[in-house]
Design a protein that fits this description.
151 residues, 37% helix
């Protein structure tokens, strides 16, 4: 089973894919699929987090970036770390995941918008294709705060 069979999988560009939960088998195929990095926004404390994910990824020669984003309280520092990781892999095939592709869709939408890769409406569509951030006040506030400097 490949990464494109993961929960809420999305191919957002020719080099970036996103998803919710992954399993060890799917992670173990990434090197063979041409990926160069994995960015994980799911805290290790989550019951369905993959045990030893970093080792599985790094043993394939891929870069592994772990940014544990608390779903109830995303922070600016989390977003800066995510943006730095995306910038560091600007030319590489990257897979980004969390539990349901909620954290990732919001972070990637904001990132793409901040880098001029999409409009605000396109960033919103990326999120709304998966979930309604308005149902989560912490996310509504987070997205608004991150967009304020872009205005």
């Amino acid at each position: 089973m490949t990464i494109d069979h993961t929960f809420n999988f999305r191919r957002v560009s020719d080099r970036v894919t996103t998803s919710g939960l992954v399993n060890a088998e799917q992670l173990a195929t990434l090197g063979g699929e041409g990926y160069r990095a994995v960015i994980n926004l799911l805290p290790d404390s989550y019951e369905h987090a993959v045990h030893d994910e970093a080792t599985i990824v790094r043993d394939q020669g891929l870069d592994y970036v772990y940014i544990p984003v608390d779903f109830a309280a995303p922070t600016h520092d989390d977003f800066v770390a995510f943006s730095d990781a995306m910038d560091a892999h600007a030319d590489d095939p990257v897979h980004v995941h969390c539990a349901a592709n909620y954290r990732v869709s919001a972070f990637y939408g904001l990132y793409a918008q901040s880098r001029g890769l999409c409009t605000e409406a396109e960033a919103d569509a990326l999120v709304q294709g998966l979930w309604n951030a308005a149902d989560y006040p912490a996310w509504t506030e987070f997205i608004a705060a991150e967009r304020a400097p872009m205005a």
